[in-house]
Amino acid sequence: MKVNTTTLQPCILVILYMTLSMVAGNRCSKSLSRIVRQQVKERLLPHYEEFKMKMPDSCPLSPNRDVYMMQEEKVFIESSSRYKCNVCGKAFISQFYIDMHFDNRHPDYIAEGENTICYADYCDITRCDIVSGQKTPDFWDISLCLEDDMTELKERCEGILDQCMPDGLTRKEKEELYRYLHGSVCHFLTCKLYYDGPKKQVCHVKDLNNIQVRLS
Protein backbone atom coordinates (compact mmCIF):
# COMPACT_ATOMS: atom_id res chain seq x y z
CA MET A 1 0.00 0.00 0.00
CA LYS A 2 1.34 3.41 -0.96
CA VAL A 3 1.50 5.93 1.88
CA ASN A 4 0.55 9.52 1.13
CA THR A 5 3.48 11.41 2.65
CA THR A 6 1.86 14.76 1.88
CA THR A 7 -1.03 13.90 4.19
CA LEU A 8 1.31 12.65 6.90
CA GLN A 9 3.50 15.74 7.00
CA PRO A 10 1.09 17.91 9.05
CA CYS A 11 0.60 15.04 11.52
CA ILE A 12 4.34 14.58 11.91
CA LEU A 13 4.78 18.30 12.56
CA VAL A 14 2.05 18.29 15.20
CA ILE A 15 3.60 15.30 16.98
CA LEU A 16 7.04 16.88 16.82
CA TYR A 17 5.71 20.16 18.23
CA MET A 18 3.93 18.38 21.09
CA THR A 19 7.05 16.36 21.90
CA LEU A 20 9.24 19.45 21.98
CA SER A 21 6.69 21.26 24.13
CA MET A 22 6.62 18.44 26.67
CA VAL A 23 10.39 18.30 26.82
CA ALA A 24 10.61 22.07 27.22
CA GLY A 25 8.00 21.95 29.97
CA ASN A 26 10.26 19.78 32.09
CA ARG A 27 13.20 22.13 31.76
CA CYS A 28 14.34 25.26 33.53
CA SER A 29 12.69 28.33 32.00
CA LYS A 30 15.30 30.52 30.33
CA SER A 31 13.10 33.61 30.22
CA LEU A 32 12.25 33.45 33.94
CA SER A 33 15.84 32.59 34.83
CA ARG A 34 16.91 35.72 32.97
CA ILE A 35 14.69 37.88 35.17
CA VAL A 36 16.10 36.39 38.38
CA ARG A 37 19.66 36.62 37.02
CA GLN A 38 19.15 40.31 36.37
CA GLN A 39 17.84 40.81 39.90
CA VAL A 40 20.87 39.04 41.36
CA LYS A 41 23.21 41.14 39.21
CA GLU A 42 21.59 44.50 39.92
CA ARG A 43 20.24 44.15 43.45
CA LEU A 44 22.44 41.66 45.29
CA LEU A 45 25.95 41.48 43.86
CA PRO A 46 26.67 45.23 44.33
CA HIS A 47 26.31 44.77 48.10
CA TYR A 48 29.04 42.14 48.09
CA GLU A 49 31.25 44.46 46.06
CA GLU A 50 30.84 47.14 48.72
CA PHE A 51 32.43 44.73 51.20
CA LYS A 52 35.02 43.61 48.61
CA MET A 53 33.52 40.14 48.77
CA LYS A 54 31.98 37.67 46.33
CA MET A 55 28.73 35.82 46.77
CA PRO A 56 29.79 32.41 48.14
CA ASP A 57 28.98 29.24 46.21
CA SER A 58 27.06 28.06 49.27
CA CYS A 59 24.42 30.63 48.29
CA PRO A 60 21.65 29.14 46.10
CA LEU A 61 21.66 32.39 44.09
CA SER A 62 25.37 32.28 43.29
CA PRO A 63 26.06 32.93 39.57
CA ASN A 64 28.58 30.08 39.68
CA ARG A 65 25.70 27.65 40.21
CA ASP A 66 23.51 29.02 37.41
CA VAL A 67 22.67 26.19 35.00
CA TYR A 68 22.59 28.61 32.04
CA MET A 69 25.54 30.86 32.90
CA MET A 70 27.86 29.34 30.27
CA GLN A 71 25.27 29.95 27.57
CA GLU A 72 24.57 33.49 28.69
CA GLU A 73 28.27 34.33 28.60
CA LYS A 74 28.42 33.19 24.97
CA VAL A 75 25.62 35.44 23.75
CA PHE A 76 26.59 38.84 22.40
CA ILE A 77 23.69 41.26 21.94
CA GLU A 78 24.61 43.61 19.10
CA SER A 79 21.16 45.24 18.99
CA SER A 80 17.56 44.52 19.90
CA SER A 81 17.25 42.49 16.69
CA ARG A 82 20.67 40.86 16.45
CA TYR A 83 21.91 38.23 18.87
CA LYS A 84 25.23 36.61 18.09
CA CYS A 85 26.45 33.20 19.25
CA ASN A 86 30.09 33.55 20.25
CA VAL A 87 30.58 29.79 20.02
CA CYS A 88 30.01 29.42 16.29
CA GLY A 89 29.46 32.99 15.09
CA LYS A 90 25.85 32.62 13.89
CA ALA A 91 23.47 35.54 14.44
CA PHE A 92 19.73 35.58 15.16
CA ILE A 93 16.97 38.15 15.19
CA SER A 94 15.71 37.48 18.71
CA GLN A 95 16.50 35.93 22.08
CA PHE A 96 13.97 33.20 21.34
CA TYR A 97 15.85 31.94 18.28
CA ILE A 98 19.29 32.05 19.83
CA ASP A 99 17.91 30.12 22.82
CA MET A 100 16.66 27.44 20.40
CA HIS A 101 20.06 27.48 18.69
CA PHE A 102 21.88 26.72 21.94
CA ASP A 103 19.40 23.97 22.77
CA ASN A 104 19.92 22.33 19.38
CA ARG A 105 23.59 23.02 18.62
CA HIS A 106 25.37 23.66 21.91
CA PRO A 107 23.69 21.56 24.62
CA ASP A 108 27.10 21.03 26.22
CA TYR A 109 27.00 24.68 27.36
CA ILE A 110 24.54 23.80 30.09
CA ALA A 111 26.14 23.34 33.49
CA GLU A 112 25.71 19.99 35.19
CA GLY A 113 26.27 18.75 38.70
CA GLU A 114 24.59 18.50 42.08
CA ASN A 115 25.16 22.17 42.92
CA THR A 116 23.68 23.68 39.76
CA ILE A 117 20.46 25.59 40.23
CA CYS A 118 17.64 26.89 38.06
CA TYR A 119 17.19 30.59 38.71
CA ALA A 120 13.55 30.31 37.63
CA ASP A 121 12.91 28.31 40.82
CA TYR A 122 13.45 31.54 42.75
CA CYS A 123 10.87 33.61 40.92
CA ASP A 124 8.62 33.52 43.95
CA ILE A 125 11.00 35.41 46.23
CA THR A 126 12.28 37.77 43.50
CA ARG A 127 8.73 38.53 42.24
CA CYS A 128 9.53 37.86 38.58
CA ASP A 129 6.16 38.83 37.18
CA ILE A 130 6.09 42.14 39.04
CA VAL A 131 9.66 43.38 38.60
CA SER A 132 9.65 42.44 34.91
CA GLY A 133 6.46 44.37 34.30
CA GLN A 134 4.76 41.25 32.93
CA LYS A 135 1.95 41.61 35.43
CA THR A 136 0.07 44.66 36.66
CA PRO A 137 -1.82 43.78 39.84
CA ASP A 138 -5.52 44.52 39.93
CA PHE A 139 -7.83 45.18 42.87
CA TRP A 140 -8.41 41.48 43.57
CA ASP A 141 -4.71 40.57 43.50
CA ILE A 142 -4.08 43.03 46.30
CA SER A 143 -7.31 42.42 48.21
CA LEU A 144 -6.94 38.63 48.28
CA CYS A 145 -3.28 38.66 49.34
CA LEU A 146 -2.78 36.61 52.52
CA GLU A 147 -0.14 37.69 55.01
CA ASP A 148 0.31 34.08 56.12
CA ASP A 149 1.42 33.19 52.60
CA MET A 150 3.75 36.19 52.52
CA THR A 151 5.23 35.22 55.88
CA GLU A 152 5.99 31.75 54.58
CA LEU A 153 7.57 33.22 51.46
CA LYS A 154 9.67 35.67 53.47
CA GLU A 155 10.91 32.85 55.72
CA ARG A 156 12.01 30.94 52.61
CA CYS A 157 13.83 34.04 51.41
CA GLU A 158 15.54 34.55 54.76
CA GLY A 159 16.57 30.90 54.83
CA ILE A 160 18.30 31.43 51.49
CA LEU A 161 20.09 34.54 52.75
CA ASP A 162 21.43 32.54 55.70
CA GLN A 163 23.40 30.51 53.15
CA CYS A 164 24.75 33.62 51.40
CA MET A 165 27.06 35.02 54.06
CA PRO A 166 30.73 34.93 52.98
CA ASP A 167 33.58 34.06 55.31
CA GLY A 168 36.05 36.75 56.28
CA LEU A 169 33.59 39.33 57.62
CA THR A 170 33.21 40.46 61.20
CA ARG A 171 29.93 39.85 62.96
CA LYS A 172 28.99 43.50 62.51
CA GLU A 173 29.82 43.40 58.79
CA LYS A 174 27.76 40.25 58.31
CA GLU A 175 24.79 41.84 60.01
CA GLU A 176 25.12 44.93 57.81
CA LEU A 177 25.42 42.86 54.62
CA TYR A 178 22.46 40.73 55.66
CA ARG A 179 20.32 43.85 56.13
CA TYR A 180 21.24 45.17 52.69
CA LEU A 181 20.48 41.84 51.00
CA HIS A 182 17.24 41.47 52.92
CA GLY A 183 16.25 45.02 52.02
CA SER A 184 16.80 44.24 48.34
CA VAL A 185 14.66 41.10 48.17
CA CYS A 186 12.96 39.69 51.27
CA HIS A 187 11.78 43.09 52.50
CA PHE A 188 9.17 43.26 49.71
CA LEU A 189 7.52 39.97 50.62
CA THR A 190 4.53 41.45 52.39
CA CYS A 191 1.05 42.15 51.05
CA LYS A 192 1.75 45.87 51.36
CA LEU A 193 4.96 45.83 49.29
CA TYR A 194 4.79 42.71 47.10
CA TYR A 195 3.13 44.47 44.16
CA ASP A 196 5.47 47.47 44.14
CA GLY A 197 6.98 47.79 40.67
CA PRO A 198 10.68 48.28 39.81
CA LYS A 199 10.55 52.05 40.34
CA LYS A 200 9.38 51.60 43.94
CA GLN A 201 11.96 48.99 44.90
CA VAL A 202 13.62 51.11 47.57
CA CYS A 203 14.18 50.01 51.13
CA HIS A 204 14.71 53.10 53.27
CA VAL A 205 17.37 53.34 55.99
CA LYS A 206 14.79 53.23 58.78
CA ASP A 207 13.42 49.99 57.30
CA LEU A 208 16.92 48.50 57.09
CA ASN A 209 17.47 49.24 60.77
CA ASN A 210 14.24 47.41 61.63
CA ILE A 211 15.28 44.20 59.84
CA GLN A 212 15.87 41.43 62.34
CA VAL A 213 19.17 39.70 61.68
CA ARG A 214 19.04 35.96 62.37
CA LEU A 215 22.58 34.80 61.75
CA SER A 216 23.93 31.79 63.63
UniProtKB/TrEMBL annotation:
What the entry lists under PROSITE patterns is as follows: ZINC_FINGER_C2H2_1, ZINC_FINGER_C2H2_2
The record's keywords, sorted A to Z, are: Metal-binding, Signal, Zinc, Zinc-finger
- List the signal peptide residues: 1-25
The family database entries (InterPro entries) matched by this protein are listed as:
Znf_C2H2_type (IPR013087)
**Which segments constitute the C2H2-type domain?**
83-106
The answer, when asked if Zinc-finger is one of the entry's keywords, is: yes
Cite a single GO MF annotation. Answer: zinc ion binding
**PANTHER family documented for this protein:** RE51073P, ZINC FINGER PROTEIN-RELATED
Q: What is the designated name of this protein?
A: C2H2-type domain-containing protein
